[in-house]
Amino acid sequence: MISSGSGEVHTVRHGRPGAPPVLLACGMGGACFDWSLVTRLLAGPAAVTVAFDRPGTGHSAPTSTPPGLRREIDVLDAVLDAAVGSSVDSSVGSSVDSAPAVLVGHSVAALHVEAYARVHPHRVRGLVLVDPSTEPPGAERPRDRFAPVARLLLRTPSPPPALARWLGPACRRVMVRLGSWTGRETATRDEVAEVYSRPDVLRALVAENAAYDELVTEVERLRDEHPLPEVPLVVLTAREALGGPRQARMILGAHDALARMSPRGERVLVPGSGHLMAADRPDAVALAVRRVLDGT
């Protein structure tokens, strides 16, 4: 656990101290074990990976701080400070505090890492957006159809523990079934039960969904105020999540626009992957991270 302004945040770190940091931010409804297959591929002297659970989710402590862009930027800063910035490479006797990080954001977390790069450009080496939310700069934004339902749910009491023990893992199974092309679950049954059976976690996930529209508005405002640094930017698009022709055109157009945010940006279509790309094609995610680390 590391401390943040929104409570204790759970992190999982792999790699050699002193190696370039890679921060992995999961999508809505996810947890840091979503990245387990990716971190295995990146493990070694080339990078130190840091996956984390946002406040109130996963193994992180409950929080009273509502989700929002400022919170997410502050948490990213705290994770980099505590989990990466204080590490020392004993072979050279130097701190990695000045080493910029590769930020990897899945789905809604792509908005978080983009915003962080705009506010703290000196701390960012590059970006990998993994099947990101379709919210490019200046576009007429489609609102999340689930957000109004989530706001209504927040007005009701949290589910009792007995119900949460069934409901949470069931929701996770549905998420994997709908989002993964391969149907692969990256967590054990015990890990899923431990995280998703907590009523406070379920409420935190609903709160993130309820705050989505406001998050997009805040990011759009930030885009007007802070340029994105000219760093490598890879947008990974899940081919099997494109749907019909109309939806595919919308997603591809939005992801192309996101890639154009940087003169060093590109979009890569990833076959054999649904929205949960870290489960379906961890090799594609790891390859994109390596390319950004290499600056190519």
UniProtKB/TrEMBL annotation:
Gene3D superfamilies: alpha/beta hydrolase (3.40.50.1820)
The AB hydrolase-1 domain, residue ranges: 22-286
Domain of life: Bacteria
PANTHER family: ALPHA_BETA-HYDROLASES SUPERFAMILY PROTEIN, HYDROLASE
Protein name: Pimeloyl-ACP methyl ester carboxylesterase
